Amino acid sequence: MFLCHDEEYKETDADIEIALPVSGRVSVEDPKMEIKTIPAARVVSVIYRGPYPGVEAGYNRALSFARENNLESFGPSRELYLNDPAEVPEEELMTEVQIQVREK
Question: Does the pLDDT value for residue 88 go beyond 90?
């Protein structure tokens, strides 16, 4: 999973956080890493199926749904990778796109 803090797509120098789900007590000794709890959020969620370079279609659908329902997007977007590219063909990859929303 990753969280993208940029407001628009950036090919380079994107402000992203990589996240892994964990349970139980975890400690990290590398000062470049930290443990955070991702807060619950109201999101529009879209499952995109296909190669990673086409995931923009998932964002477009989520943002269209938000606009059509008078919702404002804000904060970091999230991508959750639901299967493994080493185990499934590229056209069967599934990515959940989440954008945080609130009433306008």
Answer: yes
